[in-house]
């Protein structure tokens, strides 16, 4: 396995600050806007953004967690049963501007499932999508992000891995993983 660093710890902090500023440009004080992080990995991005936004805006930013498990189009096709995560939305999304947040946009199938899952909670006025990494030219569906951390050219055999800091590592990094033949 080869691991190539595509976003360093320092760059990722700058990227998150920039994405937060872009959100503020469009959503001002967030009085009519909410954030939904996609389970399982989008919630880390959503929580980081929430902290930065709250620091800048100076008021609470409504942030929830959306589970998409039962809305995935491969739900019944998987050999290993999928484990559902929690959906936690403690606010009304009816008539709100919703920002869906995930770490990676690849085929677009997770986002399609998220749109489906979200509709059970109300009819938003508008829905946007924010991702850290947009794997270009990889879409199976006509879905694009509104806010992008970085676009990456990749092969279908590769995978993007977003690694968040732990007490041991204290660094956030994004890697492009290439599987190599085991000898
Ligand atoms: O655009 P997509 O092709 O849906 O891929 C993007 C999704 O994949 C990852 O999740 P996860 O690894 O849980 O999903 P996967 O099994 O579909 O790769 C990632 O956190 C995104 O949610
Ligand atoms: O590269 C990819 C594709 C889907 N999901 C990921 O987490 N990474």
TrEMBL record:
Top EC class, one word: transferase
Domain Phosphoribosyltransferase stretches: 9-152
Keyword match Heme: no
Gene Ontology MF: a single term: uracil phosphoribosyltransferase activity
InterPro entries, alphabetized: PRTase-like, PRTase_dom, PyrR_bifunctional
Domain of life: Bacteria
EC nos: 2.4.2.9
Coiled coil: none
Keyword terms: Glycosyltransferase, Transferase
Residues of the signal peptide: none
Pfam families associated with the record: Pribosyltran (PF00156)
Name assigned to this protein: Bifunctional pyr operon transcriptional regulator/uracil phosphoribosyltransferase PyrR
Organism per entry: Adhaeribacter radiodurans
């Amino acid at each position: 396995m080869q691991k190539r660093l595509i976003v360093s710890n320092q760059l990722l902090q700058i990227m998150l600050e920039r994405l937060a500023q872009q959100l503020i440009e469009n959503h001002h004080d967030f009085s009519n806007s909410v954030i939904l992080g996609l389970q399982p990995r989008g919630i880390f991005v959503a929580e980081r953004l929430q902290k930065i936004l709250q620091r800048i805006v100076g008021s609470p930013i409504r942030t929830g967690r959306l589970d998409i498990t039962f809305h995935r189009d491969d739900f019944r096709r998987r050999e290993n049963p999928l484990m559902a995560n929690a959906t936690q939305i403690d606010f009304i999304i009816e008539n709100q501007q919703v920002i869906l947040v995930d770490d990676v946009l690849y085929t677009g199938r997770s986002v399609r499932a998220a749109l489906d899952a979200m509709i059970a909670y109300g009819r938003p006025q508008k829905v946007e999508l924010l991702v850290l990494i947009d794997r270009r030219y990889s879409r199976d569906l006509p879905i694009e992000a509104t806010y992008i951390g970085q676009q990456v050219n990749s092969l279908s055999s590769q995978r993007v891995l977003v690694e968040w800091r732990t007490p041991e590592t204290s660094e956030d990094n994004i890697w492009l993983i290439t599987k190599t033949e085991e000898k």
